[in-house]
Amino acid sequence: xxxxxxxxxxxxxxxxxxxxxxxxxxxxxxxxxxxxxxxxxxxxxxxxxxxxxxxxxxxxxxxxxxxxxxxxxxxxxxxxxxxxxxxxxxxxxxxxxxxxxxxxxxxxxxxxxxxxxxxxxxxxxxxxxxxxxxxxxxxxxxxxxxxxxxxxxxxxxxxxxxxxxxxxxxxxxxxxxxxxxxxxxxxxxxxxxxxxxxxxxxxxxxxxxxxxxxxxxxxxxxxxxxxxxxxxxxxx
Length: 236
Known about the structure:
By secondary structure, the chain is an all-alpha fold. Helix content is 64%, strand content 0%. The chain contains seven helices and no strands.
């Protein structure tokens, strides 16, 4: 665990925010030059390479286990969806990332728990990987102009529960705790209360609230957070 409000906690959030803000600006500039497609392809290859490197590291270091290392936590699943929509945009996956995946990643920023140990390499990977989950749906919304479909909040809620049921089945057979369905995470988070199975009810209620709030917000937004300019810097 990374202590909340520690130097590492603040530094990780700040530099991740700055990195992806500048990355979004690069995509915005390339869009003007009609080369944005190459930008997404580059991100896809970069994070595919990241998958190969991180799992090679887990195996080489003896950290890989079927109970902890599969991409079946909420952020692991969201990361796979990021790779898919980088290759080819899929409305449901994009909407899931926007309304639910990004919330899970934000919670991971606020109450970070590193299940495979604490090293500089894993620390950088943790922040870059979770940052992508927040960045990508925002990038698709603001740069590519992809908007949530009508009633997509309902599709996301149903899809999220299908994921919970599927991962819960995997947990039963592996004896694992993916998405913390069997036991709540060992972090101080006011949004997670109670023991099994009551914390799952909390997941459902809080998840539904966030889905509706984010849907209601993003169907009304009409500005671009990546279109900022500094007078002394020629971006494009």
